[in-house]
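Example 5.3 — Monosaccharide-sensing protein 2-like protein
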Amino acid sequence: MAGSVLVAIAASIGNLLQGWDNATIAGAVLYIKKEFNLESEPMIEGLIVATSLIGATIITTFSGAVSDWAGRRPMLIASSVFYFISGLIMLWSPNVYILLLARLIDGFGIGLAVTLVPVYISETAPAEIRGLLNTLPQFSGSGGMFLSYCMVFGVSLMPRPEWRTMLGVLVIPSLLYFALTIFYLPESPRWLVSKGKMAEAKRVLQGLRGREDVSGEMALLVEGLAVGGDTAIEEYIIEPADAFPDETDQDDTEKVKIYGPGAGLSWVARPVKGQSRLGSAISLVSRQGTVPLMDPIVPLFGSIHDKAPEMLGSMRSTMFPNFGSMFSMADQHPRPDQNWDEESQREGEGEGEDDRSDNVGDDSDDNLQSPLLSRQATSLEGKEISLAQGNSSFFQVGPNGEAVSGMGIGGGWQLAWKWSEADGDFKRMYLHPEGAGGTGSVKGSFLSVTGGGEIPEESGGYVQAAALVSQPALFSKDLMGQNPVGPAMVHPAETAVKGPKWQNVLEPGVTRALIVGIGLQILQQFAGINGVLYYTPQILEQAGVGVLLSNLGISADSASILISALTTLLMLPSIGVAMRLMDFSGRRFLLLATIPILIASLIILVIVNLFDFGTMVHAALSTISVIVYFCVFVMGFGPVPNILCAEIFPTRVRGVCIAICALAFWIGDIIVTYTLPMMLNSIGLAGVFGIYAVVCVVAFAFVYLRVPETKGMPLEVISEFFAVGAKQD
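Solution (predicted C-alpha cells):
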C-alpha cells in the first residue's frame, strides 16, 4: 500500500496550502486593516477574508462536472497554478482592490483542492485504509496553519511587520505542489475506467497496489459505473460445484453458478430460506422498528458492522477475505486467447473514437481476466464478453494472509456474478460473510488464515453469505436477445463512453446521499470552525490572552498569533488519533463521540464571557476552551464530512455530487466568515459561541438519525447500500 500512501500525501499538499492561507490571512489582516484604515469598517475587513471563499464558491460550481470530463489530476494541477499566481499578486498588492483580486484567484486554488483532493484520495486508496488516508488533508491543513502562524509570528516581531511578505510566501510551497502534480501524481484509476481507458487504469492500479494482478479490483471499478438499478438483498449457501454430488434435497432449478472476476473456478450457490443480518435489518425497517425519524440507511449500514455471533469467532476477519481460494474442485476450461483490448483497439481505429479504449499492444489477456476480457463465440462477434472459466487459480494469499486478487474487493466483501441456466438470469453480486459450516475434509475447502499466514488443510465445507444483487454495469438486453453462449456482457468501452448524466443525480439513492453530504457540510460550517480559525488572533485578544504573555515583552498582536500557533500545534496529535480511529472505530462513531465535547467547550466559553471571573481566570478558561474546541473538532467534525462526501456517491456522478456538497460548504463558509466581525461587535463572544453550541446540538441529532457508518466498505458497495435504503424507505 506504499504507493497509495505516498500518492495521498502528495495530493494533500493542496490542503496544506489551504491551511497556510487560512492562518496567514488571519495574522496579516491585523496589519492590513491598520495600513488601509479599516478598524472602523468591519465589512471591508470581512470582505478581504471572504473574497477567497467567493472564489472557491465560483469555481466549485463547475469543478465537479469538469473533473468528470477532464479528470482529477488536471484539476489539481490547475489548483497549484492558481495558488502560485495569487501568491505573486499578493506579494505586490499596492491597494485593497488588487489584494481582493489576488484573494479571489487564491480562492480558485482553494476551491479545487478542497473539493477534489478527498475525491482523488478516495478513488486511489484501498478500502481498508481509506479513512486514514483521507484524514491526511486535515492533518496537512493544520500542519500548514502551524507553519504559517510561525512565519507570521516571526514577521510580527519585526519593527515594521510587512503583511505582503506574509501573504507572498505562498509562492514557495505552491511550486512544490505544482511539481508533484505534474511529475508524480497519476490519474485516478476510477476516472480512467469511466472513460474506457482500461490499460492505463491497470497500470495505475498496479503501481498503487504494488502487485501485478489487479483483475478483481478492475472488475469492481467497471461495475461501479452503474447508477441506480433494482438492487435486492439475498442469502446463499455457497459450495464447490462438485463438493456434494449426491445431494438431491433441493431442486436443481434453485441452484445458480457463481463466477469470480479472474479466470479461475466456479461455485454453486443455493438460496437460503431464512434471513441474513442484512435481511433482518430490512425487515426491521419495513416494520418501522427503528428510532423515529431515523433514515433506513443507518441500520442497514449498521448491520454490516455489528459483531458476528460468538459461535463464528473471528471468522469475519480471517475467513471470508480468502473466499476466492475456498474451492479447487470445479470444472475448468481453457480460456480463449483473444482479449478485448486488441479488438477494441481495432474498433476504435475504425470508428475514430480515442476514448473507447486506451490500450497498448502488450496489454495481455491477464489485464482483466474473465468475465471482463475472456470472450466466447457468440452472435455478437467482437462486441460482447462472457464469463469464461480459466485454467489457473485466480486468487492469491499474501504473506500476511490478506487477499491480494480474485474476488476480494476490500472490507471482507467479494465481487462475483451469478448465472442461472434455467431462466437465463444474469446478475452481479457483492457478497459478505454470515457463517461457515460443514465438517468434511474437502480438499481445497474453506481456508482460515492464521496470524502466521498458515492455511489449515481441513476445515468447513461451505460459506453462508448475504449478497447485494443487481444488474451488471455491462449488461445489455440486446445481447440476451441474440442468444449468446453464457452470460455475455457488452464491451466495457460501450458503457464507459456514455459519461455522466445529470438525471442520475435524481436517482433515489444518490439523492439520499446528497442529503447526508449537504447536511454535514452546512452544519460543519455553522458550527463555526472556519470563522473561529480565520479570526483566532482577534478572538483570543478579546479573551485577554495578552495578560498570559505580558511578561514576554511582546505586543498583544504577536501574543495572540503565538497562541494561535500553539493551538494548531496541539491539533496535530489530535488529528493523528483521528487517523488511527477513522478505519477502526469509524466515521459515525467519531462524530457522535466528539460533538458533545464541542458543545461542552462552547458552553464554557459562553459562561466565562457572561460572568466576571477575574482577568486571569477569564483568559485561562477562554484559551483552554478554544484549544479543546479546535482539537476535538479536527478529530471528528473536521475531516469526516469531506471523507463521507468522497465515499457515498457512484463513480459516474461523484464529481458532480461532490461539487454540490462543496458548494454548500463554501456558501456556509462565506456566511460565517463575513458575518463574524459584525457578530462580535454586536452580540460579543458569548452570543457567537452560544449560536455555535445550538448548531452542534442540531448536528448531533442529524448524525444520529441520518449518517451511516462506511468504514472499510468499497465505494461501489456504499453507493449500492444507499440505493437499497432509499428503496426500503
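Remark. The radius of gyration is 28 Å.
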